[in-house]
Write a structure and sequence with these properties.
Helix content: 55-70%
Strand content: 5-15%
Number of strands: 6
Number of domains: 1
Largest sheet: 2 strands, antiparallel
Distance between the termini: 44 Å
Number of helices: 7
Structural class: mainly alpha
Oligomer: single chain
Shape: elongated
Strand order of the largest sheet: 1-2
């Protein structure tokens, strides 16, 4: 069965199916929804890691400090090297893994949070170089959020509307 195209041509059944699927994709994959899902997807692995580093409010777990003291090493040329100030690095890491994902999920200071998670991803890659297939995915998500912003389903967009600023 053939459909008539604008201009008088005919469209085959596979072409109609392809067009229908394309239309469905356009309906489902709205940019603002994609941006919200992307923010959430990047937040989850960092949040999960961050929750394991704390025993209470601003109280690092012994495991987190031990990881930065004994296990984690920076794989740089001539290395690996131990982390400098491991307790401080564990604290900074734990804070970043809670604060940046929270900001991303809320869509607040989104580009700032994405930069923070991109920098953390670089450090994670230097610490666990065999994990690059996952790390490159995190980097790609952070870069996409940095480039395209949080979308309209975010506090950044709401604040922009309230203040009358254009939201990119």
């Amino acid at each position: 069965m053939l459909d008539t195209l604008p201009g008088g041509g005919a469209r085959s059944q596979p072409a109609r199916l392809f067009a229908a699927v394309t239309d469905l994709i356009r309906i489902v994959a709205q940019p603002d929804l994609v941006q919200a899902v992307l923010r959430f997807a990047l937040a989850v692995p960092f949040w999960r890691s961050g929750t394991l580093k704390w025993d209470g409010f601003l109280q690092l777990s012994d495991t987190a400090i031990d990881l930065f003291t004994q296990e984690f090493m920076l794989h740089l040329p001539g290395g690996p090297y131990p982390f400098p100030a491991p307790a401080t690095m564990a604290f900074i890491s734990g804070c970043g893994e809670i604060i940046f994902p929270s900001l991303l999920v809320l869509g607040l200071a989104t580009r700032f949070a994405s930069v923070g998670l991109l920098l953390m991803t670089v450090v994670v890659e230097l610490t666990v170089p065999d994990g690059w297939p996952i790390h490159i995915t995190w980097a790609a998500m952070a870069l996409a959020i940095m480039r395209y912003g949080p979308g309209r389903l975010s506090l950044d967009a709401l604040i922009g509307r309230i203040l009358g600023a254009a939201h990119p």
